[in-house]
Design a protein that fits this description.
elongated; alpha+beta; about 60 residues; 1 helix
Length: about 60
Amino acid sequence: MVEKQKFCVQELIPMGCTDTRVLILYPYELSNEPILKDNILKMTKVIREYIKESEMYRSV
């Protein structure tokens, strides 16, 4: 019997901060891994910076 893989979906940047929802998908068994939690925080910062720069570029 094949077991179905379970995944977690987490919202990185809420809709209120931008007009686009940014989600991350990862295997459920990694949900309590400290390195994953640390990297999600880092990704959020980088994505926010990218969105700000992109908005500045579009407004010029």
